[in-house]
């Protein structure tokens, strides 16, 4: 799991006061609100949830591109170039991802097997 630790700290600093948790998963560090992923930081960059309706607006922004998973486009998610993520830009993306994720129903996780 090689991701930018400094960026991880910047994201945590912004999201932790909202009750967002971070968990190592999906080959990186995933940020969760009510057990729904809102962002994931991994070796390729930061992916954020923008929702299916937000794709056109998101892709029109500098440094954003369609997230591909196993070669397939992931609707509602974009991958961001870390070089574009100065503080105001990062804040904007994280606010957007939080708002979209907050509209989702909380996930009901299955209890872990012992």
Automatic annotation (TrEMBL):
InterPro entries: TfoX_N (IPR007076)
Superkingdom field: Bacteria
SUPFAM superfamilies (UniProt xref): YgaC/TfoX-N like
Residue stretches making up the TfoX N-terminal domain: 19-97
Pfam families assigned to the protein according to its UniProt record, in alphabetical order: TfoX_N
Protein name: TfoX/Sxy family protein
Taxonomic lineage: Bacteria, Bacillati, Actinomycetota, Actinomycetes, Mycobacteriales
């Amino acid at each position: 799991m090689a991701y930018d630790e400094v960026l991880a700290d910047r994201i945590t600093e912004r999201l932790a006061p909202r009750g967002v948790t971070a968990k190592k998963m999906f080959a990186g560090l995933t940020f969760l609100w009510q057990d729904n992923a809102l962002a994931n930081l991994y070796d390729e960059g930061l992916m954020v949830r923008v929702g299916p309706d937000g794709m056109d607006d998101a892709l029109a922004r500098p440094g954003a591109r369609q997230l591909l998973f196993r070669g397939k486009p992931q609707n509602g998610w974009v991958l961001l170039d870390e070089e574009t993520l100065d503080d105001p830009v990062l804040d904007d993306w994280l606010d957007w991802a939080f708002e979209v994720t907050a509209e989702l129903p909380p996930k009901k996780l299955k209890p872990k097997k012992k």
